Amino acid sequence: MTLQLHPGLRFSWHITIPARASVPALYHDTDFCRDMPVVLATGYLVGMMELTCVNGIMPFMDWPRQQSLGTLVNFRHLAPTPPGMRLRIEGEVLAVEGRRITFAVQAWDDVERVCEGTHERMLIDTARFNDKLAAKVSGVAS
Predict the structure, then answer these.
(1) Which backbone phi and psi does 59 adopt, to 5 degrees?
(2) 77 carries an active-site annotation
């Protein structure tokens, strides 16, 4: 790492929720989901919470040689958000233990807090990880 990650580091990210992030659009190939409310899908929200953490720690990594992968998500989706609303996500590094980073993350739409929880990521050596993945794929293919 070029800079030192440390507990207390704060960061934020903003995104306008696209129509493709609604439950019916995201899960369009599942019959019963097409009839669900047109609101931000929890699965998409989880991805945005993760990406906010990735973006927050990017200045501290030797990108792309070093990256991070999510290993734990523990979020409560508190309120619905329709497509077109702006989402503000804020995060804070809670702990750095070797390659493991733990975050607190919260999100608000234009009206209220919509998500809160914790997230964990592991720093990886990209080349080493890709070699292990290729060996796994090759083992399955044979």
Answers:
(1) -65, -15
(2) yes
Amino acid at 102: T
pLDDT, one tens digit per residue, over 15-24 is 999 999 999 9
Q: Which of 52, 77, 81, 119 is catalytic?
A: 77
Say whether 34 sits in a helix, a strand or coil.
Answer: helix
Active site residue 90: no
CB atoms within 10 A of CB 109: 18
Contact call for residues 115 and 140 (beta carbons, < 8 A): no
Spatial separation of the C-alpha atoms in residues 40 and 86, rounded to whole Å: 11
| Per-residue pLDDT at 2 exceeds 50 | no
Mean pLDDT of 52-71: 96
